[in-house]
Amino acid sequence: MATGLRERKRLAMMRRTQDAALDLCDELGYSHVSIEQVAERAEVSVSSIYRHFGSKEAILLWNPDWEDDSVRNATPRPDESLLSELRRVTQDTLVGGSAEAEEWHRRRLRYLLDEPSLTALLGGQLIAAADLVAEVLASRTGREHSDVQIQVNAGALVGAMLAALRSWRAADYATPLDALLDEVFEAIQGGLPLLTHPRAELR
Question: To 10 degrees, what angle do helices 148-170 and 177-189 make?
């Protein structure tokens, strides 16, 4: 997505601030880090942090991918299912083949899943993610955003992503993120067999 100079500077400042916050949290522990310390480390003003983030929690919760409309504006391919389209866009957005991007997700996830105040806010972000997926599904299918099938499918995808990230964290990130995402989409494509297949077939 092309951006102007001012927007690039804003995003660079926000990313520098988040990197500083992550460094400090790693060094001191999340509860011992203040916005003033983050501002000093990032070489920005405290007022700038409040203006762009609003709170310490929001610094770690911020994800620049949400400022990109790649999911909403993805160009559908005639021979591609909606799930395949979302899989392609999601993997490009989350990983993009970059080891640096994967490391960034690891660092944030540690705090998003382990710190109660951040986990509570993450719930709101996941609702927003489900709404975005529902919007895409509705536009592609001609259904209403509130249609129960739209909501169930969107919620299933976002819920599966959260479950996979929790598993990734619990396993100390042993699986590369792109491989983990493959597992998520293959499980959904396969109809969630642990739920839908007779128990005898799962042994």
Answer: 140
Which amino acid is it at 48?
A: S
Residue 104, CA distances (Å) to 71, 112, 126, 150, 175 in order: 20, 12, 18, 31, 15
> What is the residue whose two structure tokens read 């509570």?
120
| Residue type (1 letter), 95 | V
Task: Write the CA distances from 38 to 17, 25, 92, 174, integer angstroms.
Answer: 7, 10, 30, 30
> What's the pLDDT tens digit per position in 45-104?
999 999 999 999 999 999 877 665 666 666 667 777 778 877 877 777 666 557 788 888
Encode pLDDT of 127-163 as tens digits. Answer: 988 998 899 889 888 999 999 999 998 999 899 889 9
* Cα distances (Å, whole numbers) of residue 67 to 1, 7, 71, 138: 10, 11, 11, 21
